[in-house]
Amino acid sequence: xxxxxxxxxxxxxxxxxxxxxxxxxxxxxxxxxxxxxxxxxxxxxxxxxxxxxxxxxxxxxxxxxxxxxxxxxxxxxxxxxxxxxxxxxxxxxxxxxxxxxxxxxxxxxxxxxxxxxxxxxxxxxxxxxxxxxxxxxxxxxxxxxxxxxxxxxxxxxxxxxxxxxxxxxxxxxxxxxxxxxxxxxxxxxxx
Length: 191
What we know:
Elements: E1 8-12, H1 17-24, E2 31-35, H2 43-60, E3 65-68, H3 79-87, E4 90-91, H4 97-102, H5 107-111, E5 117-120, H6 122-137, H7 142-147, E6 154-159, H8 164-174, E7 180-185
Parallel strand pairs: 1-2, 1-3, 3-4, 5-6, 6-7
Helix pairs in contact: 6-8
């Protein structure tokens, strides 16, 4: 009988803690590789780094390569689908990282059909903290930063790790001009 070959999850680091916790708890038997969430500000840069990571992962790991990215992460014109087909890898059935946390298959559209909400969880809070700090270093006024969010109704915090109070404090520190509408405990079982 052959030894079971573990799959390799290649994921955006915005979803780093969730799979790490699943591995730690023994609920996921996979190798984990992360691509920096900070590449997400540029589709071409992100695609180049996903490609590099997938190519290296195909060389180093013998199990299936599973991309933990959304359909829209490289753009709205099936860019991710083409990448998946080109490399012959598997991808989770999700539109974006929030959809991954909600169970995929477009569930995010059920919760936010008009794209009126900003969903924040630990990885995304860290992303926006970095974004805001970088903008401030480049002398972008806080009012200009907050205008990026002005068309949204508010924030929904997704608590994946049972740290809602911590998340709420971090979101308040962001001070992006939106109020917290709700905190949903989603755990990471759907992930």
